[in-house]
Amino acid sequence: MHVNFLLFEALTQLDLAGPYEILARLPGVTIDFVSPTLDPVRSDRGLIMMPTTTLELAAPCDLLVVPGGPGTDDALIDPRWISFITQQASSARYILGICTGSLLLGAAGLLHGKRAACHWQSREFIAAFGGIPDASRTCVDGNIFTSGGVTSGIDMALRAVALMFDEDTARQIQLQIEYDPEPPFEGGRPETSPPAIVEHCLAATQQRRTIRAGIVKQAVAALKS
Hints:
The protein has eight helices and eleven strands. It is an alpha/beta fold and 225 residues long. The longest helix is centred in the C-terminal third of the chain and has 19 residues.
């Protein structure tokens, strides 16, 4: 089984690293990190990551993994990324979108009529691409696997392993990494967090949401052209 991870500037590294930790433990799996060049790629928080292949040279994959993050905004209107996702998805058995990576699947025309999860602050944009926003932490519709916020990529990858292989394999990996989350505070979703925390979070990210709304309009226009 071969897996291709998209690796673009300003992605959120846990969107990539969480699913990678799960999928890399599968027997016989090979993994590539795909970028336009082999130059180092900086995450939104400054972590440096190295591609293993380029958009031009990447092999077809069984599973395509699309992370999210602030860099999603640039990728949404970059024909290189949209063309690559479209091409890879045409032969991939499964496609996994993490957090706002779901929007990239939408920009590639993969979400029309399908349910899809996304980060709670960007979930509304799923509808702009003809998709059906799903508030679940993880969502499966056909061969499209999507998940909500950053940490949900771990959950989605485990769920994908159970569906692609079997539940025992997923459970063994879950035990290997001792994945038994116990958050120190109630919250983590807007409906379970205190209103003041939600308001503060929204205020801190207002500029990003405004920028993303405009870029989504451009991506939708490109998809329809």
